[in-house]
Amino acid sequence: MKNVNRICIYGSIILLICLAACKKTSEPNYVEYKKYFSLRVGKVITYKLDSTITAPFGVSFLKNSYTIKDSVVALIKDNSNRDTYRIFRFQLDPATGEWNSTNTFFITPLANSIEYVENNHRYISLVNPITEGKTWMGNSYITQYIYHPNDGILSWDFTYMEVEQPKKIGNFNFANTVTVQQYDSSENKVFVPNFYNSYTKSYEVYADTVGLVYKDVFSWQYQASTVITCRFEKPKTGGGLDTITVNCGSVRCDSLRNLPNYRVISCDTLLNNFNYEGYGVKQMILSHN
Residues 6 or more apart from 108 whose CB is under 8 A from it? Predict the structure, then answer.
């Protein structure tokens, strides 16, 4: 009798697990992230990549364009003994036509999310289910800023947008894509050279059965300090007036104004110690297998 009861209990547990699994997969509009992230050894995607960096002396940005390809070269185990794909990135040398290795990435597909490791930074790129407006902390493993000291990357909320929508990317017309808005700042988009400015955006687009087909990240800040200088006329020894210029940041101009026979001629605001900081990358698919 005990064996019969034990068998009945085990059978009930298995039945409940099966019912839960069936319910999950049979829910209407339940879309798993794997629909948009196709991984296998031998998969290759080539991209046009535009990289934006800070110019020397930090006064502007420079953009360089490359052709790259990401190749899935092996299925390995990570430090937690999880299945992980190793991806080699190659960059085309237009002068020789050769592909030169430039970086290595790792992608770990989990039951309900996918983790992407680049330059020792781990991101949660996609999660289940893929539904419009769903959010998650995609940078929860990040412990430091990446682009500049005020990029706010630790608090980014990733959000699904335009789920299962057609989209034209380069020469491709994809019938089914999903956009991940990682962040888009609405503050200080208009550049004002006399004040602190910043802007950050980060988007990725994934296509059904293909994977990442578009990426656009640009995060920058512009810092400038100002110095107010005032020109004064003051009595000159021996008679007449002399003209002096003072930095109002260190000298109180109001005090000078109150001195006998001191007169303000003009005050100017000058930029001082200004610089850009930031980083950008735009990645668009060229081909895939």
Answer: 78, 82, 83, 84, 85, 114, 115, 117
Q: Where are the alpha helices (DSSP H) in the chain?
A: 2-26, 253-257
* Token representation of residue 160: 């699904």
For 11, the 3-state DSSP assignment is helix
pLDDT digits (tens, 9 = 90+) for 121-176: 999 999 999 999 999 999 999 988 888 777 888 889 999 999 999 999 999 999 99
Asked if residue 70 lies in contact with residue 37, where contact means CB atoms within 8 angstroms, the answer is: no
Q: Phi then psi for 152, rounded to 5 degrees?
A: 65, 20
* Contact call for residues 159 and 180 (beta carbons, < 8 A): yes
Q: For residue 167, what are its two tokens?
A: 């989209």
Tokens of 233: 């006329």
Read off the pLDDT of residues 174-218 as tens digits, 9 standing for 90 and up: 999 999 999 998 655 566 666 677 889 999 999 999 999 999 999
Tokens of 125: 């790129």
- Number of C-alpha atoms within 13 angstroms, CB side, residue 103? 11
* Residue indicated by tokens 């790259």: 68
Closest CA to 124 of 151, 147, 156, 148: 156
Domains of the chain: which residue ranges? Answer: 33-224+274-288
Let me know if 269 is exposed, middle or buried by CB neighbors in 10 A (0-12, 13-18, 19+): exposed
> In the Cβ-directed half-sphere of 234, how many Cα atoms lie within 13 Å?
14
**β-bridge mates for residue 106, sequence order:** 86, 117
Tell me if residue 101 falls in helix, strand or coil.
Answer: strand
Q: Residue 21: how many CB atoms within 10 A of its CB?
A: 10
Tens of pLDDT, residues 21-58: 554 444 557 889 999 988 999 999 999 999 998 887 77
Cβ pair 247, 227 in contact under 8 A: yes
